[in-house]
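Example 4.3 (complexes with small molecules)
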Amino acid sequence: KVNGLEFAVADLSLAEAGRHQIRLAEHEMPGLMATRKEYAASKPLKGAKIAGSLHMTVQTAVLIETLVDLGAEVRWASCNIYSTQDEAAAAVVVGRNGTPDKPEGVPVFAWKGETLEEYWWCTDQIFRFDGEGPNMILDDGGDASMLVHKGVEFEAAGAVPEPSEEDSEEYRIVLDRLRKSLAEDSQRFTRIAANIRGVTEETTTGVLRLYEYAKSGELLFPAINVNDSVTKSKFDNKYGCRHSLIDGINRATDVLIGGKVAVVCGYGDVGKGCADALRGQGARVIVTEIDPICALQAAMDGYEVTVLEDVVDKADIFVTATGNFNIITAEHMSRMKHQAIVGNIGHFDNEIDVAGLEKIPGIKRVEIKPQVDEYVFPDGHSIILLSRGRLLNLGNATGHPSFVMSNSFTNQVLAQIELFTKPGEYDKQVYVLPKKLDEQVARLHLDALGVKLTKLTKEQANYIGVDVEGPYKPDHYRY
Ligand code: NAI
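Answer. The structure with NAI bound is encoded below.
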């Protein structure tokens, strides 16, 4: 605690470097800046206490400061152990008018390279507003929401269960964290949950968790699925990954991608961006899919579509983008070419079976540099694993660039305003933002690209059955 401000970041002296990057990012984030301007006077988030769990990058710094400008109090953690940009975290803590000796910004609990224990400690910290909990959650991947849901479940049971044989190391750490919380205050998360007006969730994987809670009647508060705003998943997941996948591979390995054979597992929004980027570099790209529609899309986009088993010993680069688990197994990795590059861009680290890889008798891990590991098999051949199987675009690079994140985060801010200012209007279900707002987010990003939009005439609008001012498509339209 310095100057009355709680925080845990790597080094506050990085704040100036962070502030320069934030300043440049602001220019590239017209959606967020327009939102700041629009709501500067009315401050719709006044009274909001937002617990944020989302990659602590430069772009997220612009999001946090937008929430603050709209009146919110914020506490923040990253949603991944490797994704924090330490200079951005420092700048947010120091604030726009503070100094490293006298920080005046926002409590941030995040640094690059946390252990899993530290990660869950940081996540717990975002729920510790002065004297009480938050009344909003802003989540990416659902870890913050999961902590509250599990906390409430165990408080109702009066005890945290012992981990079972199948539980992952990470889940054991979550149980430990909740055991400590329960010992400290047996109703802590129950009270927190009762005060939460809603959660806005950033990504495919987190949204999946929320729909599961809603389906089983366990969802504790209303949720807005930000991911399925068109201006989020069809832009961030696709064009964002098209940029940051290559950035991660390049910074990690600097290997020439042109001419190589690259496999992309999953041809959803993320996979489409990844395949496009690898092809753009001149790689021969092979796609794997389980969904016949996405497989057909990949084939018509000109990719070979086959099963991993057939190409595992032929490809040079492997990228998982499925949001599923056990996509690349230890056995697959043992059959790969010498120095094949293996990385994941899906939300969680179980797409590649790293735990299984590390259990292979005689396997040796050589750290080439932070977040780049060579695994040497007993026969002498090796593979290069990026970010220990965690999102490589955030672990090995700095995630998506500002312009695309401006779209995602403008949706986040609108969703926060919606749930915070309309308590009682939403049930404990998962909602998406109305299409009108989605179109508004896109509109805010046109000028910066010099886009000239054609205006519908009244007659044309009548002819296709829409309003001149939009929305221009029915909800079932897929873009
Ligand atoms: P999506 O649902 O659009 O695509 C996933 C695709 O994987 C689907 O087409 C599905 O059929 C396919 N798939 C599932 N199991 C498979 C298997 N065993 N083999 C081959 N394909 C399989 O989801 P989206 O939006 O593309 O997201 C994918 C993951 O990436 C999620 O975990 C999401 O949270 C994450 N994400 C990561 C970002 C990043 O910056 N790293 C950005 C956005 C999303």
